[in-house]
Specification:
This protein is mainly β and about 120 residues long. A hairpin with a 6-residue loop joins β4 and β5. The protein is about 5% helix and about 50% strand. Strands 2, 4, 5, 6, 9, 10 and 11 form a seven-stranded mixed sheet that branches. Strands 1-3-8-7 form a four-stranded antiparallel sheet, with no helix packed on it.
Length: about 120
């Protein structure tokens, strides 16, 4: 059974930092692309960042470029999202997702497994 478990969310002031983690089990982690998506209240879910199985990264440049960094540790079956210079607009539930296609995608439909999400709230 595949499980993706996010952690690291919470309440932070604008300008602060958080690091999200997503621990994966039950899948061939090193062969998967891993993505972070987010959904703010009243808005559609959007891509935050993707890391391919070989480590290549893709970001939602309009929203997070230069502030967020995605990385993976295949030895720990874990993907991370380091979030710096947080803004109130970053407030959302953040979801980890895994794609059996190692190259990943910007499209939610291309992901096979999802975590339950972790809340990130940025106060002004």
């Amino acid at each position: 059974q595949v499980q993706l478990v996010e952690s690291g969310g919470g309440l932070v002031q604008a300008g602060g930092s958080l690091r999200l983690s997503c621990a994966a089990s039950g899948l061939s982690f090193s062969d998967c692309a891993m993505g972070w998506f987010r959904q703010a209240p009243g808005k559609e879910q959007e891509l935050v960042a993707v890391v391919h199985w070989l480590g290549h990264t893709v970001y939602n440049e309009d929203s997070v470029k230069g502030r967020f960094t995605i990385s993976r540790d295949n030895a720990k079956n874990t993907v991370y999202l380091q979030m710096n210079s947080l803004k109130p607009d970053d407030t959302a539930v953040y979801y980890c997702a895994a794609s059996n296609s190692g190259y990943g995608s910007r499209r939610q439909d291309d992901y096979d497994y999802w975590g339950q999400g972790t809340q990130v709230t940025v106060s002004s």
